[in-house]
Design brief:
By secondary structure, this protein is of the alpha/beta class. The protein has a single domain, classed as Transcription Regulator spoIIAA (2-Layer Sandwich), CATH 3.30.750. It contains four helices and seven strands; from the N terminus they run βββαββαβαβα. It has helices at 26-30, 55-70, 82-90, 103-121, and strands spanning 3-7, 12-16, 20-21, 43-46, 52-53, 75-78, 99-100. Strand 1 (3-7) and strand 2 form a beta hairpin. The longest helix is centred in the last third of the chain and has 19 residues, at 103-121. The chain starts with a strand and ends with a helix.
Amino acid sequence: MIVKIDTKEKFTVLTIEAAKITANMTADIENFTRYASETNPHLIINMINVAEIEVEAARVLAEVQQKFYEKDHSFVICEMKTDVENTFDNEELTETMNITPTESEAGDIVQMEEIERELLGDFD
């Protein structure tokens, strides 16, 4: 899978260049977990170019997001087209995922979650 990588101060943005994410791309999606061990472990997946996603790929993307949150790292998906979002909705995945309309809002979520982790860390 071809992705454009944009490293920001607090997070990395991966913009998927494919128009369709198929089930045979699940290994590529699982490889996103390597970003959780980077110095900048928060990840935004920009899906502006994706017109279609197969169910299995959507499920794996939800699993990868869960792995990030288990490590106290942020993972936000943004810029989903309606058909892609419908696939996530039909599989009841959107309730457990961070999905925003824009990349800017995704960056805001990452920063808010980082502040939340810092504040909650003070209570430990």
